[in-house]
Amino acid sequence: MRSLWRSPPTLLPYLTRLATADFWLVLVALLGMIAAHAIFWLVVQPVNRHWMAGEDERITAKAWLGGGSKLEGDTAWTVLRDRWEYGHVARAVMMTVSLLALVVSLVI
Predict the structure, then answer these.
(1) Residue range 36-87, pLDDT digits in tens
(2) I need a surface site. Which of 44, 49, 84, 100 has the fewest CB within 10 A?
(3) CA 79, 84, 86: angle at the middle one, nearest 5?
(4) DSSP category for residue 68
Protein backbone atom coordinates (compact mmCIF):
# COMPACT_ATOMS: atom_id res chain seq x y z
CA MET A 1 0.00 0.00 0.00
CA ARG A 2 1.51 3.30 -1.00
CA SER A 3 1.81 6.16 1.41
CA LEU A 4 -0.62 9.08 1.32
CA TRP A 5 2.31 11.48 1.14
CA ARG A 6 3.54 9.89 -2.10
CA SER A 7 0.19 10.04 -3.89
CA PRO A 8 -0.28 12.43 -6.85
CA PRO A 9 -2.56 14.98 -5.11
CA THR A 10 -0.04 15.51 -2.31
CA LEU A 11 2.95 15.70 -4.67
CA LEU A 12 1.34 18.20 -7.03
CA PRO A 13 2.09 21.30 -4.92
CA TYR A 14 5.77 20.27 -4.91
CA LEU A 15 5.76 20.02 -8.70
CA THR A 16 4.46 23.54 -9.28
CA ARG A 17 6.54 26.64 -8.88
CA LEU A 18 6.21 28.30 -5.50
CA ALA A 19 4.27 31.59 -5.19
CA THR A 20 2.52 31.27 -8.55
CA ALA A 21 -1.21 31.18 -9.16
CA ASP A 22 -0.90 27.51 -10.15
CA PHE A 23 0.69 26.63 -6.82
CA TRP A 24 -2.06 28.29 -4.78
CA LEU A 25 -4.84 26.74 -6.85
CA VAL A 26 -3.30 23.28 -6.50
CA LEU A 27 -2.89 23.85 -2.77
CA VAL A 28 -6.55 24.88 -2.47
CA ALA A 29 -7.51 21.69 -4.34
CA LEU A 30 -5.37 19.55 -2.03
CA LEU A 31 -6.81 21.16 1.11
CA GLY A 32 -10.34 20.71 -0.26
CA MET A 33 -9.73 16.99 -0.82
CA ILE A 34 -8.27 16.60 2.67
CA ALA A 35 -11.27 18.45 4.14
CA ALA A 36 -13.70 16.20 2.22
CA HIS A 37 -11.94 13.12 3.55
CA ALA A 38 -12.03 14.47 7.12
CA ILE A 39 -15.73 15.32 6.83
CA PHE A 40 -16.47 11.75 5.82
CA TRP A 41 -14.68 10.19 8.80
CA LEU A 42 -15.80 12.77 11.37
CA VAL A 43 -19.40 13.46 10.26
CA VAL A 44 -20.75 10.82 7.88
CA GLN A 45 -19.10 7.59 9.04
CA PRO A 46 -20.24 7.81 12.69
CA VAL A 47 -23.84 8.01 11.45
CA ASN A 48 -23.28 5.02 9.15
CA ARG A 49 -21.82 3.11 12.07
CA HIS A 50 -24.73 4.05 14.37
CA TRP A 51 -27.34 2.98 11.82
CA MET A 52 -25.62 -0.34 11.15
CA ALA A 53 -25.22 -1.26 14.84
CA GLY A 54 -26.69 -4.68 15.45
CA GLU A 55 -26.99 -5.57 11.76
CA ASP A 56 -25.55 -8.82 10.46
CA GLU A 57 -22.59 -7.78 8.34
CA ARG A 58 -19.89 -9.58 6.46
CA ILE A 59 -16.34 -9.38 7.76
CA THR A 60 -15.34 -6.77 5.18
CA ALA A 61 -18.31 -4.57 6.04
CA LYS A 62 -17.43 -4.79 9.73
CA ALA A 63 -13.91 -3.63 8.98
CA TRP A 64 -15.20 -0.71 6.89
CA LEU A 65 -17.99 0.36 9.24
CA GLY A 66 -15.77 0.02 12.29
CA GLY A 67 -13.96 3.28 11.51
CA GLY A 68 -14.93 6.71 12.74
CA SER A 69 -16.02 7.87 16.15
CA LYS A 70 -18.94 6.34 18.02
CA LEU A 71 -22.13 8.32 18.62
CA GLU A 72 -23.32 8.30 22.21
CA GLY A 73 -26.86 8.13 23.52
CA ASP A 74 -30.19 7.71 21.81
CA THR A 75 -30.09 10.36 19.09
CA ALA A 76 -33.26 11.01 17.09
CA TRP A 77 -33.13 9.56 13.59
CA THR A 78 -33.98 12.94 12.00
CA VAL A 79 -30.91 14.50 13.63
CA LEU A 80 -28.76 11.64 12.34
CA ARG A 81 -30.31 11.86 8.87
CA ASP A 82 -29.66 15.62 8.73
CA ARG A 83 -26.08 15.16 9.90
CA TRP A 84 -25.53 12.46 7.27
CA GLU A 85 -27.04 14.56 4.47
CA TYR A 86 -25.24 17.79 5.42
CA GLY A 87 -22.00 15.84 5.63
CA HIS A 88 -22.47 14.63 2.07
CA VAL A 89 -23.36 18.13 0.88
CA ALA A 90 -20.25 19.57 2.53
CA ARG A 91 -18.10 16.85 0.93
CA ALA A 92 -19.62 17.57 -2.49
CA VAL A 93 -18.87 21.28 -2.09
CA MET A 94 -15.26 20.56 -1.06
CA MET A 95 -14.70 18.21 -3.99
CA THR A 96 -16.31 20.67 -6.44
CA VAL A 97 -14.05 23.47 -5.21
CA SER A 98 -11.06 21.14 -5.56
CA LEU A 99 -12.00 20.14 -9.09
CA LEU A 100 -12.59 23.74 -10.16
CA ALA A 101 -9.27 24.83 -8.66
CA LEU A 102 -7.43 22.10 -10.57
CA VAL A 103 -9.22 22.94 -13.84
CA VAL A 104 -8.49 26.65 -13.45
CA SER A 105 -4.83 25.88 -12.67
CA LEU A 106 -4.62 23.98 -15.97
CA VAL A 107 -6.33 26.72 -17.98
CA ILE A 108 -4.32 29.71 -16.77
Answers:
(1) 999 999 999 999 888 877 766 665 555 555 555 556 556 678 888 999 999 9
(2) 100
(3) 95
(4) S
